[in-house]
Amino acid sequence: MHIVVIMNPKNKIPRHLFIQQDLLKKIQSGEYAQGQLIPKETELTKIYKVSRPTVRQAIQYLANDGYLERRKRRGTIVKQQKINQEFTHIIESYDSEMNRKGLHPRTQVLTFKIDKATNDIANHLEINEQDEIYKLVRLRYAENKPIVLVTTYLPLKLLPDFLNNDFEQEKLYSVLQKMNFPVLQIRRKLDVVKADETTSDLLDIEEGNPIFYFHSIGYTHNRIPIEYSISKYRGDINSFIFELNHSA
């Protein structure tokens, strides 16, 4: 049941702004939940007793601010708010970052096995091609939504008995720390690519949607590469913070 809002003629707030603020309150309170359709424009004109262009203007402002999204043949939905990822300038586990943001993290291990290094992997880990490596593929969630698909390669010769770890429960960087190979420095490269069929299925997005594609090399003591990871982040609900310092 919708409550009819009576506009006060003495109120100097423009009607479209009043509607915008009221819709935003409903979104932030959860009355209009993420992924939910808000009432149609014709219905909103009756609720707020205004013209359709006024309603459309309020909706457009919220769409521009990233709160709403118009869908063809469906209507207007409440968008998933983007998660600001800060790992571009902070060495921190995924679980720790999500917990700090008040989001519940979960990890699903898709693959964890011993493999052979390709030329690309060998170059990044500074080992020989065909050397034995660990291949760890994890699908990581926040609040039950898949956020990022991570494939990590680690040199087997430095990490004996590594397969004994359960990375659905344990944090990779914590395990490396315990094994005296802490990640002290990371080098990352960012690309934006289109999701292929497998990635789109795992991340629950449309094939061809943009994804953030990170190549990361984690270095331990004496700048020895201890991990090489390829991370594929959903482009629709992730944004990244880069912190730059002025050079002397």
TrEMBL record:
CDD domains, per the entry: WHTH_GntR (cd07377)
Single Gene Ontology MF annotation: DNA-binding transcription factor activity
Record's keyword annotation contains Transcription regulation: yes
GO biological process: negative regulation of DNA-templated transcription
Keywords per UniProt: DNA-binding, Transcription, Transcription regulation
InterPro entries assigned to the protein according to its UniProt record, in alphabetical order: Bact_HTH_transcr_reg, Chorismate_lyase_/UTRA_dom_sf, Tscrpt_reg_HTH_GntR, UTRA, WH-like_DNA-bd_sf, WH_DNA-bd_sf
Keyword flag Ribosomal protein: no
Gene3D superfamilies: Chorismate lyase-like (3.40.1410.10), Winged helix-like DNA-binding domain superfamily/Winged helix DNA-binding domain (1.10.10.10)
Record SMART domains: HTH_GNTR, UTRA
Classification via PANTHER family: MANNOSYL-D-GLYCERATE TRANSPORT/METABOLISM SYSTEM REPRESSOR MNGR-RELATED (PTHR44846), MANNOSYL-D-GLYCERATE TRANSPORT_METABOLISM SYSTEM REPRESSOR MNGR-RELATED (PTHR44846:SF1)
Protein name, UniProt field: GntR family transcriptional regulator
Organism (species): Gilliamella bombicola
